[in-house]
Amino acid sequence: MARTKIAAVSYLNTIPFIYGIEHSGVLSAELLLSPPSGCARAFIDGKADVALVPAAAVPAIPDAEIVTDYCIGATGPVRTVVMMCDCPLREIRRVHLDFHSLTSARLIKILADKLWKIAPEWVELTDYAKTDNPQPGDAFLLIGDKVFAAEGKFRYTFDLAEAWQKLTRMPFAFAVWIARKGVSREVTDALQHALTYGVEHTWEAIVEHGFDDRDYAYEYLTRNIDFVFDAQKYKALQKFWDTGLRVSLRANPG
Question: Are residues 61 and 117 in the same domain?
Answer without folding.
Answer: no
